[in-house]
């Protein structure tokens, strides 16, 4: 019988209560483990030079460097790591900045523990999980983009 690979999850979250709640969530979930836990982007970047996690759960609004900039830098070092934004911010600008920076998924902090775990699994399996509200915005943006392209084409 083959043992399933454990998903190593790093958490970058400045709120200590949320950070500890997430750490506990992954600690007690079979098939997952909290790999590292960080309160700032700078701290996370210092720890990811040699050993990279499978998934990073990243807040956007961090003290100092933003989570988006952290993903941009981290994705250059840890190319096989998947990045899941975990934030209360769902405006178009931040969603698309995060995706352009290298985020592979985007969920809101209003997500339930079950949704968070499902998103991490989906991301690890090659999916691109997004909270429904965020996914709708991406689809609407793409639809507007196609309309603009069609109008420009002869």
Describe the structure.
It is a single chain. With 154 residues, the chain is of the alpha/beta class. It has one domain: Response regulator (Rossmann fold). Helices cover 47% and strands 18% of the residues. It is built from 6 helices and 5 strands. The protein has helices at 16-27, 41-47, 67-77, 92-101, 113-124, 132-152; strands at 7-12, 32-38, 55-58, 82-87, 105-108. The protein has a 5-stranded parallel beta sheet with strand order 2-1-3-4-5, with helices on both faces. Helix 3 (67-77) links the parallel strand 3 and strand 4. Helix 2 runs parallel beside helix 3. The longest helix has 21 residues, at 132-152. It is globular, with a radius of gyration of 16 Å.
How many domains is the backbone divided into? 1
CATH superfamily: Response regulator
- Shape designation: globular
The chain-level mean pLDDT equals 86
Radius of gyration: 16 Å
Q: Structural class of the helix and strand makeup?
A: alpha/beta
Biggest sheet statistics: 5 strands, parallel
Low-confidence stretches: 145-153
Q: What is the H/E string?
A: EHEHEHEHEHH
Number of extended strands: 5
Strand order of the largest sheet: 2-1-3-4-5
Determine the number of helices (DSSP H or I, runs of at least 4 residues): 6
Q: Give the % helix.
A: 40-55%
Cα separation of the termini:
59 Å
Looking at the structure, the CATH topology is Rossmann fold
Q: What share of the residues does DSSP label as strand, in percent?
A: 15-25%
């Amino acid at each position: 019988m083959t043992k399933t690979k454990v998903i190593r999850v790093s958490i970058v979250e400045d709120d200590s209560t949320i950070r500890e709640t997430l750490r506990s969530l992954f600690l007690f979930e079979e098939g997952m483990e909290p790999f590292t836990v960080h309160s700032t982007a700078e701290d996370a970047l210092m720890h990811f030079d040699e050993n990279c996690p499978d998934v990073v759960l990243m807040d956007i609004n961090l003290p100092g460097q933003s989570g988006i900039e952290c993903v941009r830098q981290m994705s250059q070092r840890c190319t096989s790591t998947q990045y899941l934004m975990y934030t209360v911010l769902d405006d178009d600008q931040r969603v698309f900045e995060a995706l352009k920076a290298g985020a592979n998924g985007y969920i809101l902090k209003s997500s339930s523990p079950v949704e968070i775990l499902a998103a991490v699994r989906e991301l690890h399996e090659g999916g691109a999980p997004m909270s429904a509200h965020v996914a709708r915005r991406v689809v609407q943006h793409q639809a507007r983009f196609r309309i603009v392209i069609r109008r420009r084409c002869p």
